[in-house]
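S1.2 Input.
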Amino acid sequence: MLENVLRLQAEKIRDEYADHDVAAFTRRLAEAIADKGCRPPARVTRAAAGGGRPVPVRPAVLRGRRRRRPTPLLDPAVAPAAVLVEVRRLCQIVLRSDDVDALGAFAADYDPVGARTFACLLYSLDKWEGALYWWRFAAGAGDELAAHLLAVHHAAVGPWPEARVWRAMARLMGFAFEVHLPVPVRGSSELAQGFARSLDRSLQTFLTGSRLPAGL
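S1.3 Output.
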């Protein structure tokens, strides 16, 4: 039945445009554009009350409206350094949770939890560029905590448009601490560093270099 409907629609469209002259249509369109290009743009005006000189009309939608200032990303009383400490604290929680187990197969499956956990390890080692790369990877794959971490980091150091984008993304994804922040089950993050030593060479470059690999 679907094939019959599609066939009838195709025949109808073909019949409608059977006598359409593409060359003539293109020529008429070019002539119309050239003709309008030679004319000065018409001014939109209105006459003043009581007769007088016309004045330019300002779109009604813009009259009397003030541009709303964007909501501040951070409380002015909070220092950016304190925000970065919070990012590191969240990373330590991740590295002390069972999410570290995802690092074992991360080089093979590149799942979002492994990407976010690997990024937290990089961030704790001050490899910010690599951390941001893998947080973006994880957030793009649906990891809510990664989107939140990106928003908080950029809120502290910029660029602020990225902070707003990731904050909006985290909200759209429904981020909530009580749901998406893993529970720490060990007292240190040494296990994560042990897993990192077993990663393949392509991931080791993120641990040893302060910049992203050239291919990225």
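S1.4 Remarks. The first strand starts at residue 45 and ends at 46.
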